[in-house]
Amino acid sequence: MKYRNLGKYGTKVSTISIGGWLTFGMNIDDQTSLNSLKVAEEEGINFIDVADVYNKGESERMVGEFLKERERSDFVISSKVYGKMSDNPNNRGLSQKHIRESIEKSLQRLNTDYLDIYFCHRYDYSTPLEETIRVMNNLIDEGLVNYWGTSTWFAAEIERAVGIAKELGLRPPAVEQPRYNLLDRYIEKELWYTIDGHGIGITVWSPLAQGILTGKYLDGIPEDSRHARYNKLAEREMTEEVFEKLRKIREIAKENDMTLTQLSLAWALSRPQISSLITGASKPDQVRENAAAADISLSPKLIEEIEAIMDNEPQYHPSYRVNYRNFLKGEL
To answer: pLDDT tens digits, the chain, 332 residues: what are they?
Structure first.
C-alpha cells in the first residue's frame, strides 16, 4: 500500500481506501462487512469513509463494531453531515444545531471520541456559510474533529469558504470529496484549480463509476448487481459507446497483467492531486483486488493510450446544474 498526504496537511491516508455507501450495514451482512474491513486492514488500508445518512447510521455502526478491537490511532476515520435523518425540519443541513447533534450521534455509533475528517456532505443553501464554518472550527478546537471538509461542492463555494475562514481567522476546509473516474472527469475543470491552489486534499468517491469500470456490465446486467437494485445508478454512462471503449481498455489491462478495475484505479491515482480513492466492496476478494492497484504505476505512454480511446474531455457534472434550481423550488 502507498500513502499520500491529505493535501498540504500532515495526515497520511492510504491511496486506496474503503467506504460504506450501499455496503456496510446495508447490502451485506455484518460478518461479511467485518471480514472486508479486516482484509482492508491486512492490505494496509488505513482510511475508512462513512456518513450518518448511509442507511440512517447503520454504516457508522458497523465500522464502530470493527473499531472496538482495534487501536483507533491506526485508522483515519471520516463521516459526513447534511443528509435528511428524519422528518424533523432541523434534522438535516449544516446548521449549528444539526451539526452539533449529528456529531454526537456519529461518534457514538462509530465507537470513537473523534473523527479525523468531518465532511459537509453537500452545500447548504439555507444556512449562512459563516455559521457552518464557525461550528466546524469549534469542533476542531474541542478535539472532536481533526479536519473538516466538503463533498460535491462547487469551486466557487469552496473559494467562499476559504475566504470567509481566512477573514475570520478560522480553519478552512482541508479536503474535498468529489466524484471522479475515467468516465467522469468534471473536477478537472474549475474545481481542480481551486483545490490545487489552496492545498486541499481530494478523497474521491465512485472511482469505479458505481461498478461500471470493473467490467461486470460489459456482457449484460446481472440481476443481483448494484445497478439492477438501485434505480440504475450511473445510467447516463451505461451506453454501448462507453462499453465499446471499455472493452478496448479491458484488453489493454489484460496485456499489462491487471484487471480493468485495477487499471481504472491506477489511472485515477496517476493524478498527484488525489489523496485517496474511496472504493466499495461487497466481499473481501474485491478489497484485495482494489488494494493491489495502489502499487501499479501506469507509464505516460499507457495513460495517453487509455485517454485516446476514451476521448472524453472533462465535462461539468450534471447534478451541479440542478442543485441550485432544486433549492429554489424547495427540494433541497
So the answer is: 999 999 999 999 999 999 987 666 566 778 888 999 999 999 999 999 999 999 889 999 999 999 998 999 999 999 999 999 999 999 999 999 999 999 999 999 999 999 999 999 999 999 999 999 999 999 999 999 999 999 999 999 999 999 999 999 999 999 999 999 999 999 998 899 999 999 999 999 999 998 999 998 887 666 655 555 554 556 678 889 999 999 999 999 999 999 999 999 999 999 999 999 999 888 899 999 999 999 999 999 999 999 999 999 886 555 544 444 454 445 44
Based on the residue annotation, tell me whether 114 is a catalytic residue of this protein.
no
Residues ≥6 apart with Cβ < 8 Å to 140: 146, 147, 148, 171
Residue-wise DSSP of 6-70: STTSS-EEESEEEE-TTSTTTTS-HHHHHHHHHHHHHTT--EEE--TTGGGGHHHHHHHHHHTTS
| Terminal C-alpha separation, the chain | 39
3-209+261-298 belongs to which CATH class?
Answer: alpha beta
Annotated catalytic residue, options 3, 9, 54, 316: 54
Instruction: List strand residue ranges (DSSP E) for the chain, in order.
Output: 3-5, 12-14, 16-19, 47-49, 76-81, 115-120, 145-151, 175-177, 201-205, 276-279
